[in-house]
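Progress narrative, Year 2. Work on E3 ubiquitin-protein ligase PEP5 from Maudiozyma humilis advanced from sequence curation to structure prediction during this period.
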Amino acid sequence: MSLNLKLQFQFFENVPIRDPQLGTASQLYSDPTLSAAALINSKTLVIAVNSVTIKVNSIDNSSVLKQFNAFDDGYRITYLDIINNSYLVTVGEQTGLPAIFKVFKLDKLPKNGNSFLTKVELKNGDNTALISAISISPDLSCFTVGFTNGKIILVRGDLGRDRGAKQRMIYQDKDNEPITSLALDKDASCCFASTTSKIYLFATTGRNNGNPELILNNSSGINLNCGCMVKESNEFACFHDGNIEFYKTNGEKRSIAVDLKSIKRLFSISKDYILLVVEESNKESNLRIDDDNSSSMHRVIIIDVQNKVVALNFIMSNSVVDVLSSSDDSSEPIYLLASNGVIHRIIEKSIEDKLSIVIQKQLFQFALDIGSKQKISERKMQEIHKQFGDYLYKKGQKAEAVEQYIQCLDVVETSEVIAMFSIDGAADADVIKNLSEYIWSLIKKGKANEDHVTLLLIILIKLKDTEQVNDFLKHFTREGKYSENEITTDLDDEAYFYSNEELFDFKLILRLLDESNFKNEAYLFAKKFSKDAVTIVEVILDIVKDPWSALKYIKSLPIDDTLRALAIYSKDLLDLLPNDTNSLLITVFTGKYTPERYEYEKSRKEVERSVFDPKTIFYSYTSFMDYMNKSLSITQDSSKAKDNDQTPTYHPPKPSIVFTSFIGKPFLFVVFLEACLDSYRRYEGSMEDKQIILTTLYDIYLTLVHDDIPERQDSWKVKAKHILIESKKMLSSPNTDSSSSNSRSNNVDNSLMMLISHMNKVDMFLSYDEELDATSKDEETSIEYPLMKDESAYLINSFRCLTLTEDPNNSMRFFEKYCEKEPNLYRAALTYFVSSKHITNAIGGEEVLKSKIITPILKRRLLSMIDIVHVLSSSNAVTFGLIQDTLITHTEVLEQEIHKSQKLAESYESELKDKEEKIKSILQKTDGTTIQLKGKLCQMCETPLELPIVYFKCGHIYHQRCLNEEDYATQSAQVYKCPKCLVEFERAHKLQEAQLETSQKFDMFQMALDDAGDNGDKFKVITEFIGRGGLEFQHLNL
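Result:
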């Protein structure tokens, strides 16, 4: 990798600080005798002047904080360093004498050089070679020193505590080449070293016999001050042959090509930045500027190692004496000490300033790279993406701009982006496609609203992009979210049908799909996103143009949806599939409909899928069923052939709902009505609805008498006559049940048939045929109420529905049948039966109301007395006498319960007193002097008593010799137990433990109360719990 010298930025700020004491007798860092310097922190500088004097200077105040002589005269301080912000390390040299290594504590700097923490003499032969490189470990456990004669000395010891040190030579160059660089790694286990011709790696532990561990570069070395340690990455960085190379302790190497020469210094600011000091000459270079004094100038360059760019570049008019920085904190500023007495403070700019500099140069990708490496906030990154997108859009790179806008959805104004691409992309398919990608990103990130989704679908449909449309169907959920996986499970989610959220303009999309001839996609959209099954029928019928599939889909719906679909589309279906549609209508309106499995088939023809021949015309329901049963037997569908005899599974709807669909189709209408009439005859539905069917069928028969061909006119007359006779018989039939049949026939009115007969000139008062009289039978109607198991709400709703029929007797029968299964029916029944005097009288008056409803409510405590009185007084249906009797009865019941409870409490209290007296008598201590021994026998050996004896509180006396010791008490006294009472004692002890266990199991007590419920005897549960010792906290030791 090479450094891009064309990309130069000012990521650092250069602030020159001139010595205010320059030219005076008390010069600070401009002192010409300055021989070494080190930085304690960003505000304090340590310098060595006058060979042996150390000064601690304040940079901000330009004052001397501390001054002392560190060495004797004749020495010259050549090295200063700060270790861990706690120690000051100094090295003094004198020709012919060993170099001296001294350590001072920063918080206790001495007044002279004799007060030091640690002192080490560095012996190097005749001591004529000067020190060229030093590296000290952070914990002062070891340091290495390199000399100009090619020798490296390793010193180990506890230098921070002055516990002695040992030194040994670890290398001696054969050619006596000077050591140009030394660098210990983090744990001081390895040391990088270099000469002018080679680069080595030494192990600082163990014996190396003067040989390096590795030779990192055997062909060339590095110059003085051109190598250092990168602490953060634990790498050795050096410059030679136009490359900055980085070495690891395992020998791995990486390099960066730099088109620079005459490097005088290399310094590691951090793992990301390397500072180079380049000597400017008259030769041309990429970084050269015209200046008459260029030969004596130094150029300071900071290289961004990660991004391979120049982070700072400026010229210094004088040479750089040293580069100073805090030893631990790389975020602190660094200082360049110039030979003219000026210190240059180099401060890294903030990330915001860096990004501003880069963005000003419109290097947005580089700004994004910097932001990601610096881990700036997500919002700031999105702002850069937005600026990058605007830049690309202005350049006409719209596809690339969309990619950037997708990355900044939180900060970009979505409407503005859509407007930009909508205007420019009016006739450009590529731009519209780019807009679709942007909206896709909004959907995937969950930031799209109804309009966005609608716009995306419009674009996809206009582009004829069926693949993207199908992807939308596969991955866009009914919750309005994007799923990476294909969706297969949310089609049965009923919650979607009850939500008010609109995902997109569904009707508009269906219309566009229809216009674009996307028939299959339109069906899939309707199937997945329509909340109304009728809409799906509309799509299949009007868009897909597949009436057979529409009819088959209707057959798969629940009865309510099927009925709604037929009410709307039965007319169109009768035009297209007359017999198949009529068959479905008959099934639905005779109560025999059951949903079938539906699979969309778009390739088969209608003729292949229909049971009926489309040209076949039926003139009666009998011929229709004969043909159907014959066709089904041919196709071996015996189960469907038996549908004609099955009992209705639901209350059939009124056939009048679809009467208008049969306009212009009299023969289909005849088949339908005859089927409905047959169902009413079989199962005795509503007489009123039956009369409507009879009236309509009578009208059609008489119409066909005039309109049909002559061959069938007589048959229509006979059928009309039979219908008229049946209607008369239904009206004149005797009522077998005065409470139910009367109310059923009261609403039946066949006066319309008289009008029809008059219009068709038919005599209304025809005599009954004898054949019909012989075959007709009076049938009693019976009410069947479907019951759903464990559905209390269904029973209550069914009762409320019955109350709307204005037949209180039916409601009473329903109540009597299901009141034991559903107690909540009592409240609903009480409210209904007292709502009016008519209803109360219809069920038998107040006596029936009291005996069947009010008394069970009080007995089962289903309602409070206040609620009962409130319901009874809500209308004028009942008298005050009923309310008074109810209150008296309730009061008497309460008094009886109170009397029983009092007697029970008294019995418990008496029993408790007996128990207490018995316990007191047992526990009462008996004076031993009153024991009667005369004439008493031992209860064990039955011999006269002789001392010593043992007397128990139970009254039994034994010789002591006849008893066995049970155990010993804490005072080591002998303990005996009565042999005769031992069994009872053990039983009492176990009972005591059981009581203690019961008192600790409160959860069992709570469960027993819950099981008792509202109708149980909770008082009995409580007394049993107390009787078992549930409230005992103290127990007697028997």
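The CA atoms of residues 809 and 844 lie 9 Å apart. The mean pLDDT is 81.
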